[in-house]
Amino acid sequence: MKNKNIIVTGCARGIGKEIVNTLSENGANVWACVRKPTEDFSLFCTELSQKHNNTITPIYCDFIDQEQIKTAAKTIMSDKKPIHGLVNNAGITLNRLFQMTSLEDARKQMEVNFFAPFLFTQYIVKIMIRQKLGSIVNISSTAAQDANSGRGAYGSSKAAVICLTKTIAAELAEYNIRANAICPGLTQTDMVSESMSQEIIQETINQTKLHRIGQPKDISNAVMFLLSDLSSYMTGQVLRVDGGL
Amino acid sequence: MTLKGKNIVITGCLKGIGRATLETFAKNHANIWACCQKEDQEFLDSIQKLSEQYDVKIFPLYFDLNNYDQIKQAFKQITDSKQNIDGLVNIAGVTYNALFHMTSIEKTREIFELDFHSQLYLTQLISKLMMRKKSGSVVFISSVTALDGNPGQIAYSSAKASFIGATKTLASELGNYNIRVNSIAPGVILTDMTKDLPKDKMDALLSKSKIKRLGTPEEVANVILFLISDLSAYISGQIIRVDGGIG
Fold first, then answer.
1. Which residues of A are catalytic?
2. Chain B touched by A222 (CB under 8 Å)
3. Mutate which of B27, B188, B219, B234 to test chain A, going by most A C-beta atoms within 10 A?
4. N or C: which end of chain B has fewer CB within 10 A?
5. Residue A47 has pLDDT above 90, yes or no
6. Of all helices (H) and strands (E), which one includes residue A19?
7. C-alpha pair distances (Å), A245 with each of A188, B126, B171
8. B168-198 pLDDT, tens per residue?
């Protein structure tokens, strides 16, 4: 990934933070998008860029706000650097049975998990089309394919991401732009521990073929593979990183 | 990425995807048991060169896919070396083009023997070594024809489809021993095996792919490298299309 410039959204914690870490370790420069500035995050970016001698630029953007998405894209473009990759990772989750889910809840899931990456990618691919080069990795979820109870709103928004990924792959292949999705299974993040009971987590682990919970590093390594030229003949694919659910 | 100190068994190393995989793994510093059908001086020279160039050990192994005694003999050479095996890449296989009604059941059995059972047998042997040290990664080469069908390839596509069930079942059974099992489904890759495809078939396949070109053996080898390496430590039971976006 040496000297590649990559945009990653949702970098404050969990999978996104680990993606920034992994990319930086492997020599990439990163635009790291988070919702709001915090001292912790600035420090994380500074330390990382010093450690690996590359650039980590924090970008502040609340992905529920179209104006902020546009501004973030403009800020990145104003750097006038080639953009080799985009990782749409920012997202929210919801565990609620279908009958208990208000349309408002469902719209919010769609807004952040689908419309936000939809719009953001529209801006960023303009640059990639001009460069005739780029790799897009969208973070979907096994919930998009497996339809688990309580995941109607979340799973549907993540399923929409899969369709978007395949469509982008079809439309933009002629510009040498690849698009693939990753479906993480159960991954050890705050988002999971905050939204799932210990009991359900254990139950899910028992269902995996590898009998363990995934680590953010497991996901970030797969993201890096899809961003890199190692996957140059893969596009429109959905890669499950789920320990075999 | 480095696979320094890892020992990998690769079958079908003489040509095509197998040869590219051999070279890719050597470049990434793995030691390799390079399997092919029969002794070949050009092959011996090239593995000698590779092992010097990348400072790795490459041992040739010879067996026929339909000769289980030879497979067992090759396996014995591996066990005699007392080396662990970290990865197994089952690439060796044959292709067969004939319409359903032109394909005898005997021929179909023969293709299954060469394209499925022998791989399963070798995996049975090698995975025992992996179980002992509770780690390993196995890769099978399936095909997009297994997932999408392809007129004129009934025997081949069915044999390749068998890997889909095998991959998922073995991922379950061997997951208990921390062994991962995945398949790659290549699309149209530039090898001797696809060279003979009629032009209209080739054009039809390419027109379906999003990246409008043939894949190279190296592009498949790179995905195999990913699946054998720890970068894919949480990926098991998957069928991964490397097809330029046919499906």
1. 154
2. yes
3. B234
4. C
5. yes
6. helix A14-25
7. 15, 25, 10
8. 999 999 999 999 999 999 999 998 877 777 8
Instruction: Test B231 with A215 for CB contact under 8 angstroms.
Output: no
DSSP A99-164: GG--HHHHHHHHIIIIIHHHHHHHHHHHHHHHHT-EEEEEE--HHHHH--TTBHHHHHHHHHHHHH
Tokens 């390496």, residue located? B229
Chain B CB contacts of A229 under 8 Å are 222
Contact B245 A231 (CB under 8 A): no
Query: Dihedral, CA atoms, B174, B178, B183, B189, nearest 10 degrees?
Result: -140
DSSP state of A111: I
pLDDT at B205: 77
Closest alpha carbon within chain B to A206: B176
- Could you read off the pLDDT of A170-215 as tens digits, one per residue? 999 999 999 999 999 999 999 888 888 999 999 999 999 999 999 9
Confidence of residue B86 (pLDDT cuts 50, 70, 90): very high
Q: Do B175 and A208 touch (CB under 8 A)?
A: yes
Distance CA B188, CA B211 (A): 11
The answer to whether residue B200 scores a pLDDT higher than 90 is no
Question: How many whole angstroms separate alpha carbon A71 and alpha carbon A50?
Answer: 27
Instruction: Say if pTM beats, i.e. exceeds, 0.90.
Output: yes
